[in-house]
Specification:
- The chain is an alpha+beta fold and about 250 residues long.
- The protein is about 25% helix and about 35% strand.
- It has helices spanning about 15-20, 70, 75-90, 165-180, 185-195; strands spanning about 5-10, 25-35, 55-65, 95-100, 100-105, 110-125, 130-140, 200-205, 210-215, 220-225, 230-235, 240.
- The strands form two sheets. The chain has a seven-stranded mixed beta sheet. Strands 11-10-9-8-12 form a five-stranded antiparallel beta sheet, with no helix packed on it.
- α3 crosses α4 (about 165-180) and α3 (about 75-90) packs across α5.
- It is globular, with a radius of gyration of 18 Å.
- Bound molecules: biotin (BTN).
- Biotin binds near residues 119 and 137.
Amino acid sequence: MKYQRYHFDTVTSTNDFAKELVQSTDCVVVTADFQTKGRGRNQNTWLGEFGQNVYISIGIKHNQIKKVEEVAYFQWLGALSVLHALQNLCCSVKFRLKYPNDVYAKLGNGKYKKISGILVEHQFLGEYCISTVLGIGINVKQTLFPSEIKNNATSLKLLGCELEVEQVIDELIESVEAKLSLLPFEIYEQWIKELNILEKEITLINTGQRCIVKNFDEIGQIIAKDIKSNQIIIIGNGDTIRYDLS
Ligand code: BTN
């Protein structure tokens, strides 16, 4: 892909800049050393120290305007790109996708902790999507995390992979480029394979409901069966679930 690259010291959120910049170019890559208003899914804040981690947003203008169902696959593309980039960079560590599109790493004690999060935002003109921003955060060199996330956050350094932020960015961009050459259904199949969640038991954090994953719909929502009531329930991007990643 041909892209314009921008790097900033400090921004509010790289997603905000990519969203603006992609209006005048087909593809932009925006990175920063620090975000003052980094955001995650479900209105969460994305925290990270200056210069220690990857904060990147890739803005893609759609040359053919697309309906919302046609752009859902960018979430899976983002997650797979991160997963494969990290697998290439740190062969000794086991990385797993966690629904919907987080990447977790296995620690020495067998526990999994989050190493990367992906926030995909679409820009619409009426009902059509004109551009998409893939915002990705990867913890690279940070070793201390604020109390609210420390139990669930790790970094490449904590896993024994001493890498520079720039190396991780380069590998990630290559990985995104490779995925962009695939068809949406190929991405979908890879994502489902890597998630490895079919027929597994999951718990919905909000309600405590326990379900078995039966299938996915075309926009990546989980179709699950409630263990108690046998009712079919749909679980989407906004839901948080817990399950065994191993
Ligand atoms: C999540 O796990 O909730 C998603 C986190 C996404 C964080 C990245 S960091 C770069 C980009 N800019 C942001 O404000 N968010 C994304």
